[in-house]
Amino acid sequence: MMHDARDLPLRYYIFILSMWEEGASQPGQPARWRYTLEHGQSGGRRGFKTLATLVAYLDSWTHNPPDGAAFVTSHTTTEQD
To answer: Which of 14, 35, 74, 77 is the most buried (most CB within 10 A)?
Structure first.
C-alpha cells in the first residue's frame, strides 16, 4: 500500500539561537563567537564553541532527531572544539 506524503507525521521543531562575541577581539584576529541552541519544546539548551560544531549538530539532528527527552533539559552543555 502506498502512503501519501500528507499521511506522514510532520516533523516540526523550534529552536532559539543565541550568539555572542566572547572577549575582546584583538586587531587582526577573528572574533570568538559562541552559540547556544535552545529547544523550544523542552527548554533544553546546548552550547557550542564554534559555528562548525553548531552546524554539525543541526545536520545530525535533521538526519536522526532524538526524542524530546534526549535534549538536555536541566542545564547548558558546551561542545568542545
So the answer is: 35
Confidence at residue 55, expressed as pLDDT on a 0 to 100 scale? 95
Nearest-Å Rg of the Cα atoms of the chain is 16
CA distance 16 to 23: 23
Other beta carbons within 10 angstroms of residue 72's beta carbon come to 15
| pTM of the shown model | 0.66
Confirm whether 66 is domain-assigned. yes
Above pLDDT 90, what percent of the chain? Answer: 35
Residue 7 lies in a domain: no
Q: What is the grid cell recorded at 42?
A: 523542552
What's the maximum distance between 2 C-alpha atoms anywhere in the chain? 64
Q: Which of 24, 23, 22, 25 is nearest to 33 (CA)?
A: 22
DSSP 13: -
User: How many domains does the chain fold into?
Assistant: 1
